[in-house]
Structures are given as structure tokens and as C-alpha cells.
TrEMBL record:
One of its GO terms (molecular function) is UDP-glucosyltransferase activity. This is Glycosyltransferase. CDD domains: GT1_Gtf-like. The keyword Repeat does not apply. The keyword Cell division does not apply. It comes from Gossypium australe. Keywords: Glycosyltransferase, Transferase. Belongs to the UDP-glycosyltransferase family.
Length: 413
């Protein structure tokens, strides 16, 4: 009898990281894998709510709650999510608490003996912990290989050390120009995040491999470069939201059955829409009335826009968002920038209303807008085919599960 695979999923404690991790756990569960999501106390209820709905659809997904050592790290009691961190100055303490999870994670691995650990990029130390129990560790970054590769080239070659404006060295495809103002603080100077960033990049080649929420056809040149030149093992299994659409529909159907605020909702019928909690962005983008999407260039939002066939207006702020903008505007040519040029952790770069008006007109009016719209719709069709039987993402997912299944058969006693 074939042994059922059991995977651990360990997301970073932030909404933008947790959501794709839940979708990823569901994706593997649809393939017969038992998925277990490790969560802190305040994040567990939201995760359990989503996984409960997935369980009702017949998927095997559990949640394990892990105590977060907030007080031990000098944080307020119960501060187990980035939204709860009182100020940016306290973030080093939050990551100290994260590192203190090594022993609790070790205990869980010893107790449950999973066949694989899929851990967030912000947990580079999990590679070593998993190796102690001979558990393959996969990194889930939640971004594209274009940006993963570009970031690594800037880290390795450091072109910003000698030029204010530079072309990313030894990068495939089109010349990608950047400025030092668009780079992360921890790349330009030594900060508390620099070591974390370096460890995160280095563990990509030390661990079993990298799961990418993208599809090969969208960035094939950079996907090949990431594996062949940078030496990373990677599986492109996205867009994950397309693969988990059935579960998402069930979730939204149930949300529609809630009966609170009915009076207000009735008054707004035909004039407005009441959204409870986080807006269902995928459903909104797929509405035929949507002609464009202003985005901060977070990868989750970008992929949702691409799969919906909606062109974008780019307004990057922080993280890898300026790299993502380059992919959208210069490579794929499905977006128009508003002119944001400074990496800012909190407030972002200020942009004048005239720039936004100009960008809106560019994606809505004229021949260029029509070309952009047709191009993004072609990518949307490619995305749908990628997750179908025989598609590139479906094939990557099956290959990964097959490889991990073979390892499990060899190591089981």
C-alpha cells in the first residue's frame, strides 16, 4: 500500500505571506497530500476557517498551533503577527522571536515526521533544522523568478556600489536599468536585515529546492536562467489561485449566506456592494467592468491581475516591488508606471495626480492600450492552460510530488 505523503507548511506571520501559503497547502491537498500548516495563536483562527472549508470539500488539511515567544524576545504579550508589532524599531525583536522557534519546530518535526517542510523565505534556519530529521526543505518565496534572479545579480555583482543608475549585470533578456533609489535599504547599507537577506538567498541553493507561484510561459527566459545559471532547483506551480478556484468559490458562496447588515445591504442593492473582511480581489478583477488595476506590485496582486487578463498601473513601494514593475512594464509590456522611483518601507514615494491620470489614459485609451489589453489576455489564457492537465504548472507539481514520494519510500522504515 502506498504511503500517504505528509507535508508541513510554515508561513511567515504576515497576511501577504500567509494567504499564498494556505492556497499552496490546499493545492498539494488536492493531489492527495496531507497538508499541515504551522500557525501562531492569532493567525490560527483565520487559517482554520479557510482550511475547514477545504476539509468540507474532501481535502486533508490540518493546523498546528505553535507558541510564539514574544515576551521572551522583548515584545508585548500576544505580538505574534507583523501587524501587531508596535513600531518598525521593534521588528528586529520580532525576528529574534522567529529564530527562537527552532526548538519548537524541531519538536514538531520529531513528533509528526513529515515527508517535507515548505517554509517561508524568512526562515532560512529551517533548512538546517529539517536536515537534522532528514526532511527535505523547500523554500516558498511567493514572488517570480525574474525578481529572484535580478535580486541575486544585484547582490552578487553590486553594481550600485559604483553607479547611481546601472544595468543589472549578466542578466538575460532585455537590459534592465535600475537606480540605487529603487533598491532595498539592506542592500545599499548594512542593517539588521542584511544577514537575514543573505542567509535567505544562500539557502536557496542549499535546500531541496524552491517553489514558485508563477508559470513557466510567463517568464521562461528567467526560469531557465534561475536553474541553469544560478543553480537553483525550482518548480513553477502557479498561478495557485487558479488551481484552488473551486475552494475559493465555496468560501465566497458561504460568505454570501451571512445575514448581518442585511438592512444596509438591501438599501445599497444596485448601487453598491458590501464586502465583509478582506475583499475578494480575484473575483473583483475578473468582473467585466474592470479595465485596469492600480497595484503596489506585490506578486500576489500581479499574478491575480495577469490571470484575470487585466492590465496594470504600477506603483511600487518596497520589498522586491520595483523589480516586479520592470517585468510588467519593460518585459511583458502589460503595465504603465506612475513614476514611483524611491524604495520606502512605510509611506512610499509621493506621486502627483497628473501622473496617475496619464497612466490611466495610457492603459484605457488608444492603440497602445488595446495592444496591452490583448497581450495580457494572451497571458491569462497561458495561465489557465498551465494549471490544466498536461500544463506546465500541473506537470511541475506532479514531478515534485513524485520526487518527494520516491524519497519517502526510500527513507521509510
Amino acid at each position: 500500500m502506498t504511503q500517504q505523503l505528509h507535508f508541513f507548511f510554515f508561513p511567515f506571520m504576515a497576511h501577504g505571506h500567509t494567504i499564498p501559503f494556505i492556497d499552496l497547502a490546499i493545492l498539494f491537498a488536492t493531489k492527495g497530500v496531507k497538508s499541515t500548516i504551522i500557525a501562531t495563536p492569532s493567525n490560527a483562527p483565520h487559517i482554520k476557517k479557510v482550511t475547514h472549508k477545504a476539509n468540507k470539500l474532501g481535502y486533508q488539511i490540518d493546523t498546528l498551533v505553535i507558541k510564539f515567544p514574544a515576551v521572551e524576545a522583548g515584545l508585548p504579550d500576544g505580538c505574534d503577527d507583523t501587524d501587531k508589532v508596535p513600531s518598525p524599531d521593534m521588528m528586529p525583536k520580532f525576528f529574534l522571536a522567529v529564530e527562537m522557534l527552532k526548538q519548537p519546530l524541531s519538536d514538531l518535526l520529531k513528533q509528526h515526521c513529515p515527508h517535507c517542510l515548505v517554509a517561508d523565505m524568512f526562515f532560512p534556519w529551517t533548512t538546517e533544522v529539517a536536515a537534522m530529521f532528514k526532511v527535505p526543505r523547500l523554500v516558498f518565496h511567493g514572488t517570480c523568478v525574474f525578481s529572484l534572479s535580478a535580486v541575486e545579480h544585484v547582490r552578487l555583482y553590486q553594481p550600485h556600489k559604483s553607479k547611481e543608475t546601472f544595468t543589472i549585470p549578466n542578466f538575460p533578456g532585455d537590459d534592465i536599468k535600475m537606480t540605487t533609489a529603487e533598491l532595498e535599504d539592506y542592500i545599499k547599507q548594512e542593517t539588521w536585515q542584511t544577514k537575514l537577506f543573505n542567509d535567505s538567498k544562500e539557502t536557496e541553493s542549499k535546500c531541496f529546492g524552491v517553489i514558485v507561484n508563477s508559470f513557466y510561459e510567463l517568464e521562461s527566459v528567467y526560469a531557465d536562467h534561475y536553474t541553469d545559471f544560478l543553480g537553483r532547483r525550482a518548480w513553477h506551480v502557479g498561478p495557485i489561485t487558479l488551481s484552488t478556484k473551486e475552494q475559493e468559490k465555496e468560501s465566497n458562496d458561504e460568505r454570501g449566506k451571512e445575514n448581518w447588515l442585511l438592512e444596509f445591504e438591501k438599501r445599497m442593492e444596485g448601487k453598491g456592494l458590501v464586502i465583509r473582511g478582506w475583499a475578494p480581489q480575484v473575483l473583483i478583477l475578473e468582473n467585466e467592468a474592470i479595465g485596469g488595476f492600480v497595484t503596489h506590485c506585490g506578486w500576489n496582486s500581479i499574478l491575480e491581475s495577469v490571470t484575470a487578463g487585466v492590465p496594470v498601473i504600477t506603483w511600487p513601494v518596497a520589498a522586491e516591488q520595483f523589480y516586479n514593475e520592470k517585468l510588467l512594464v519593460e518585459v511583458l509590456k502589460i503595465g504603465v508606471g506612475v513614476g514611483a522611483r524611491k524604495w520606502k518601507r512605510l509611506t512610499g514615494d509621493f506621486v502627483k495626480s497628473e501622473a496617475i491620470e496619464k497612466a490611466v489614459k495610457e492603459i484605457m485609451v488608444g492603440e497602445k492600450a488595446m495592444e496591452m489589453r490583448n497581450r495580457v489576455k494572451r497571458f491569462a489564457d497561458m495561465a489557465k492552460k498551465a494549471v490544466e492537465d498536461g500544463g506546465s504548472s500541473e506537470s511541475h507539481l506532479n514531478a515534485l510530488i513524485g520526487e518527494l514520494s520516491s524519497i519517502a519510500m526510500k527513507t521509510c522504515k
